[in-house]
Amino acid sequence: MATYFGQNLAYLRRALAGKISQQRLADELGLKKSTLAAYELGNAEPNYEDLVFLAGHFRISIDDLLNVDLARQMAFGTPNGNIEYVPVKALGGYTAGYGDAEYIEQLPTFELPFLSKEKKYRAFPYEGDSMPPLREGCVVFGEWVENWKEIKNGTICLVVTRDEGVVLKKVFNYLSEKGLLVLKSLNERYAPYPVLAEDILELWQFAGYFDGEFPR
Hints:
2 domains; 434 Repressor (Amino-terminal Domain); single chain; Umud Fragment, subunit A; alpha+beta; nine-stranded mixed β-sheet
C-alpha cells in the first residue's frame, strides 16, 4: 500500500466541517471504528471495495488518496482551482473590492480534493478568539450561499458585512420575519448581535478549515 493512505484518511476526516470523530465517520461509512483507526494508523490495508468507497466519499481519485500528500498539497495549493484565497494583506480592502472583477481576479486560487469542484469557495484567514477551537492564523473555507433565506438556524457562516468586514459566526436566520440575521460566537464571552440584511454583502457557509499548527 502506498505511503500516504493512512495519513491522508486522517487528514481528510479532520478537514471535514466540524472536525468529526473516528466513531462518527465510521458510522457514516458503515465501518467499524477499529477498522477506520487501523487504516489511519497504517496498521491495516483496505480491501478494494473499501478503497473505492472511501475515495468516492471524499470525492478524490484513488491515485491521489494513495499517492499524494494531501496535507502538503493543502499547504502549498493547486493553482487554477475553484477556491479563491483572500490573504491577510488583502483582507482590509475586501469589503470594498468583493464585487470588483479585477480585484477578485488578482486573488490566488487553488483546489482541494475534499471540496466539490462544482461549487464556488472562498478562503479567509481567521482572526480573533470568538470561535474555538479555531485559532488565529488558520484558514477558513466557505461555500458560496446564493439564497440567504435558506440558511438554517445554527449554521456556521463567514458573514461579510459593511462595518465589520469578514466574521465567522453561528447564524440565526430572521431575514423573512425581521430582515436580519443574529450572529452568535461559540465563545460565550461574546454576546449575540443582530445584523440587518442591507448591511450584509456576502454569505459563505463554513466548509472546513486548515491549521498549520499542531492542536494543543
